[in-house]
Amino acid sequence: MADSARHISSAARFGLTDPRAEQDLRAAGLWGDAGPRRETILSALSRSPDPDLALRGLDRIREADEDGWLVLRAELESDRRLRARLIAVLGSSTAFADFLTAHPDQWRRLDGGGTAVEDYTAALYAAVDATGDIPTAAVRGHDAVRALKSAYRGLLMEVAADDLGHLVDSTLPRPDYDHVARQLSELAEAALRAALAVAWAETGGQSTARLAVIAMGKCGGGELNYVSDVDVVFVGEDDTAVATRAASAMMRVATEACFEVDAGLRPEGRNGALVRTLDGHSAYYKRWAKTWEFQALLKARPVAGDAELGQAYLDVVTPMVWTAADRENFVPEVQAMRRRVEDHVPAELVDRELKLGRGGLRDVEFAVQLLQLVHGRTDELLRLGSTVDALAALGAGGYVGRTDAAELADSYRFLRTLEHRLQLQRLRRTHLFPADSETDDLRWLARASGIGPERGRNAAQVLLADFRRHTNRIRRLHEKLFYRPLLDAVARVPTEQLRLTTNQAHARLAALGYSSPQGALQHIKALTEGVSRRAAIQGAILPVLLDLLGSTPDPDGGLLAYRKVSEALSSTPWYLRVLRDEGAVAERLATLLGTSKLVPDLVVRAPEVLRLLAEPKELALRAPAEVAEALRAAVKRHGYLGNAVAAARSLRRHELLRIACADLLGFTDVLSVCSALSSVWCAVLQASLAAVDRAEAASAGGHLATIAVIGMGRLGGSELGYGSDADVMFVCEPAPGVDDSDALKYAGRVAQTVRKLLGSPTQDPPLQVDVDLRPEGRQGAIVRTMESYRAYYAQWGEIWEAQALLRAHPVAGDEALGARFIEMINPIRYPAGGLDAAQVREIRRIKARVDTERLPRGADPATHTKLGRGGLADVEWTVQLLQLRHAHTEPALRTTSTMDGLTAATDAGLLTPEDATALREAWLLATRVRNAATLVRGKQTDQLPTHGRELAAVAAAMGTPLTEDPGTFTDTYRRTTRHARAVVEHVFYD
């Protein structure tokens, strides 16, 4: 007993754990009393996927032919190629052990170069003695089935040996999945030809009927499994009754001898005629075929029978395949079909099903086939049957990202390899990955898949982790590609419109709304000419983009802007990839480019914002504190003052584009837009002031003064528009031991430097820091101390200056100093006792003068958003007059916000709810129109356009459909502001 245990323990170092191992080794002459013999064979056994299984296979061969075993054993010792191939096959498949037991001499198939792929047909024809121009077998019936089965199984074993030999001997070639799948497909085709030769022998009639066998599915695509149904369609001519008998006999012979032959993909499925004429096929596919049937035809390929008839069949159906995507709801139908397939998988198996489950092979195949059918209408390079070949073509053509294509192909090959190994075990059709608890099966599958024995028991865990990684990757990429919104949009563009002649293109572009089709064609040519990947991706995107731009107010301007953006971002690697892979980005970008002249210029200089177009929340929601912190951090990283301010301007550009996109796309409201723009301006001022102050302090030997920036006007009220200046006042306080004169000079240099750096011309919208609201206006000092401000307002301050202070709010610099300044001016802007009659008359006089003198020449007072009747100034002056008169008794009126002021005035009974509503609606509408007009024109404007594309664009930006007359929008604006003006007349002018 001890000796036996010792021998078994010793045998375990060769991977043999079966208690019968010693007995089998002794019987085979591989083990003696002193231990192992012929260790080359034992070492090979240790590297096989299952050493015990391989040993049992050798022992069964020995039992079947003792004399032959002695020859085989000697060959195994001397021939490393034979040794590796045979032991790898036996350690992977009990079915091949059965075959070799029944046919002990067949091991010789593995000792040489094997049968070449091109000789498969000849080998199987020889098995049934088939000859003649239309090959006809001399052997028929059960004899033919037996002969064909033996020959087919032997050739299949050769393929398996080629596939597996490297597992045992790493010096042998390691064929990739593509090579093995092609071998298996070629072998299946040869088997179909041989079975047809037997069928002709059994039925006769080969001289009176023509029959072509069309391979479908994996066989048609050249990517067959070891064990799989072979899908076929039959085409017959002349005597179709004879052809039908031959087709039926062929299916029977091939099914009994080799694999199941399935003709269920024929027209009308199992209820349809087994054989149809060419005209019958043509009529069916033209009139009755469903979407999935064209998807199936994607892999159709003649493999047996009448080659001329088979080619004629392809000539008939192929054009239909590549126009199938023109069918209504084509993409949704294919997507729904994939969901139905997955729904039929039991819930407990959906994560283990290699073929149909989530992240399985069908996910890859459906995604690839859908992309082929949509884009292959115009790109013949995509018309391939093989999934991996088609995926490579999609990647090369730019329809799929190169990384995505490579990863998807890698994961597909991994799952197909697992499928092959699982089917080899017993040569049964299976697609089920072992459960986590089936550790022995997992360990065997890991070793059979190339995860070496050195991993030991960890091999199962490595395989499990790889399996989950690949299925998760497939599912992620499947959902990205298969449900890509752009794909459905491309499919909706009819095929004939993807291949237009010049005249047709003119008509098509004109119909889409392009006023200059010739110019549009030039842009299209510039974007798509050449053979670069960039041009290919543009070719895939443009058909959809042209339609999308055609639905904007200015298709011509939008296409020109798209060309400029594309050329400017030609070296940005992710730009076209985002447009292709994120359909929402392309759609939203088209809306922006066809509406606004400001957005394209900003996109060129801040392209990273394009990524945000895919996520409305990221585009619209960003906390002001987060923006300010990012801006300050960016500025601090730069020691050189010019670079620091440039960084601030760069982040301002990014934020300005983000806000503009969210605004035009309707993801945010007008008050949020104004607040966001104001917070960005405040952050720029804060960061720039800090940078300039540091630089000035370094030059002056220290900080000579504390500085605060007080926002005025719209900046103070957080109501800035896209082109608004920043109205500010600078206040300073001398540092301890510094006299006022030195402090003012220091602060003055800081203020002037900030204004100069921010106001220097660039391609961005201007950043003008306006200090005209300071005491004494343009004649006064730019910076004053707190006491200087106090003294000025006490002695010289006028009522309009008190009105201007209503919006004063600290926006940058020293917070404590800013707070003290506000405390100092509160009695001035909220005067005790309100206003006397003379002060009220003075405010009304100034307002009347503004109305008559400051309105630009030629401006329409009915549609001027700022100074027009019922416009922004009307509403704001009305609220400010109420504040000056009543804020001393109504604390809620002490606000810098116009909208909050209206609410407070209503609550205090100073305005009726109806009057407040009229003023609020007018102010909000005028603000929105002012912002929209600036975005549309690309520069600050206060005038609502009166006609043409600009008016249509402003109306569209406000949510008016292009199908409506923009004049209706103008009427709405006039009516709203007219109501507001009526309120102003009786509230402001009393």
Blueprint (SSEs and pairs):
Layout: H1 2-12, H2 21-27, E1 31-32, E2 35-36, H3 39-47, H4 51-64, H5 66-78, H6 80-90, H7 94-102, H8 120-127, E3 130-131, E4 136-137, H9 141-168, H10 177-203, E5 209-215, H11 217-220, E6 230-238, H12 240-257, E7 261-262, E8 275-276, H13 278-287, H14 291-297, E9 301-305, H15 307-321, H16 330-343, H17 361-375, H18 387-396, H19 402-426, H20 439-448, H21 458-482, H22 485-492, H23 495-498, H24 502-512, H25 517-528, H26 533-550, H27 555-568, H28 575-581, H29 583-593, H30 598-605, H31 616-620, H32 624-636, H33 641-664, H34 670-700, E10 705-711, H35 713-716, E11 726-734, H36 740-759, E12 769-770, E13 783-785, H37 786-795, H38 799-804, E14 809-813, H39 815-829, H40 837-853, H41 872-886, H42 898-907, H43 913-937, H44 948-957, H45 966-987
Parallel strand pairs: 6-7, 6-8, 11-12, 11-13
Antiparallel strand pairs: 1-2, 3-4, 5-6, 5-9, 10-11, 10-14
Family: Belongs to the GlnE family.
Region (Adenylyl removase): 1-486
Cofactor: Mg(2+)
Descriptive account of the structure:
The N and C termini lie far apart (119 Å). Strand 6, helix 12 and strand 7 form a beta-alpha-beta unit. Helix 26 crosses helix 29, helix 32 runs parallel beside helix 34 and helix 43 packs across helix 45. The N terminus is likely disordered. The strands form four sheets. Strands 5, 6, 7, 8 and 9 form a five-stranded mixed β-sheet that branches. Strands 10, 11, 12, 13 and 14 form a five-stranded mixed β-sheet that branches. A two-stranded antiparallel ribbon has the order 1-2. Among the domains are: 167 residues, Four Helix Bundle (Hemerythrin (Met), subunit A); 179 residues, Beta Polymerase, domain 2, CATH 3.30.460; 151 residues, Up-down Bundle (Four Helix Bundle (Hemerythrin (Met), subunit A)), CATH 1.20.120.330. With 990 residues, it is mainly alpha-helical. The longest helix is centred in the C-terminal third of the chain and has 31 residues. The chain has 45 helices and 14 strands.
